[in-house]
Design brief:
2 domains; Homeodomain-like_sf; globular; mainly alpha; 10 helices; Tetracycline Repressor, domain 2; single chain
Amino acid sequence: MTRTARKRTGRRPGNTESRQLILDAARAKFATHGYEGASIRSIAQEAGVDTALIHHFFTSKDGLFSAAVHDAVHPEQLVAAVVGKRRALRGLGERMVRAIVGLWEGEVSRNQMSSIMRSAVSHEVAAQLLRRFFTEEVALPVARSTGKSDPEVRAALVTSQLVGLAMTRYIVQVHPIDKLPADELVACIAPTIQRYLTGALPVSFRG
């Protein structure tokens, strides 16, 4: 019997457990079939739940994908760790890069992030959802914490750099970036992120 076809036995899972089962199944399906190929029905079968429960928790596949990203990244915790209680500007770029690289360096979190990134590469809707999530829930809160002008522009610049880094190191695996020790990678990228977050921008982007 395949994993997809298996039936769960024992006590019925509670709401929290069912929700997590759905998220895990969604990431697995997104990783193997892409955003478009992963249907709500197949995700429900993988999780051992009814499709109605997915709609109850997440409303739509877009909502499920966004929730899967949120569950993998934990943006509130990440932003809090990057900004810090003292909101020190010094070292902000390094903390930001180290936090993002840390998401990819752990075995479990790397698998989660890879499934999300591969879906974004293969489908424009998933790409838009990922860009919006990372910009609005991670980069923008960090940029706003600095009190500097044009936080939206700064957040977009940070997103472009860090999503590009994830793509080249972990998905496309461009050499030698894919083989650099994490500390060396952070040292290479952190000054650029620091400049995006706290440095002077070359022009005014105020609309």
